[in-house]
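User: I'm putting together notes for a lab meeting next week and I want to include a structural view of one of the chains we've been expressing. I don't have a solved structure, so I'd like a prediction I can at least talk through. The sequence is below, exactly as it appears in our construct file.
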Amino acid sequence: MRLIMIAAIFFGLGNMLQAQVTTVTLTGKVTNDKTQLTIPMAKVSTYTEGGFRGVLCDTSGKYKMDGLKPGTYTVYAKSTGFDTLIVMGVEVAPDALTFVDMKLTSGNMLKAIPIVYVPPVVDKNMPRIRISTEYIEQSPNIRNPLALLSNYSSEIQMPEGSNQVIIRGSRPGDAVYYIDGIKMTDMGSVPGVSISGVEAYTGGIPAKYGDTTGGVVSLETKSYFDLYNAWLAGQ
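Assistant: Thanks for the context. Below is the predicted structure for the 235-residue chain, given as structure tokens.
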């Protein structure tokens, strides 16, 4: 009987102690101190006897932290792009909601940096050899664009029996060839009547042609309208 009475006493004391332990709620909202607009998903946190506690604000910038014991807390609020706000000495009283509104400053936000586009400097005096359509039409090498170039300038050589050119003493095979903007292994056989122009870069090669030091040969063919106009002129 005595054991039963002692157990009943301890059980009653436990219920009394549990009833005396009251948890309270800390709530409020987080706003921008300059615009007064709320800051969704800001983080509000504090340290308790049980360790670190943190909650996120909802989409309207409001937060709610339940399960705190009455006492004094230091509350932190932070969000991306804003300074962390620290509010010390927050009294959380029992049997009442404690409201703490947090206003974050953005004084240390990265400011927008204006970017001004400056077009690249194009040297119009790049070492370049350009053969006109008129010269091509009058040349006996009209069927061989590379022979045209080698006969036109002493900076370009074409070894006998080769389908490659050597530009300014580069090694054979170093030159790069383009026909209407398409990279080719060589110029091949292009009908002379279809050639609009041939040019060669002997130095200062534009970036669009890639990384090469052996020079560039670029050939442009006539368009349909060029051929049609030439046909009309011959009528």
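A couple of points you could mention at the meeting. The two ends are 133 Å apart (CA to CA). Residues 128-233 form a domain with the Ferric Hydroxamate Uptake Protein; Chain A, domain 1 fold (CATH 2.170.130.10).

User: Perfect, that's what I needed.
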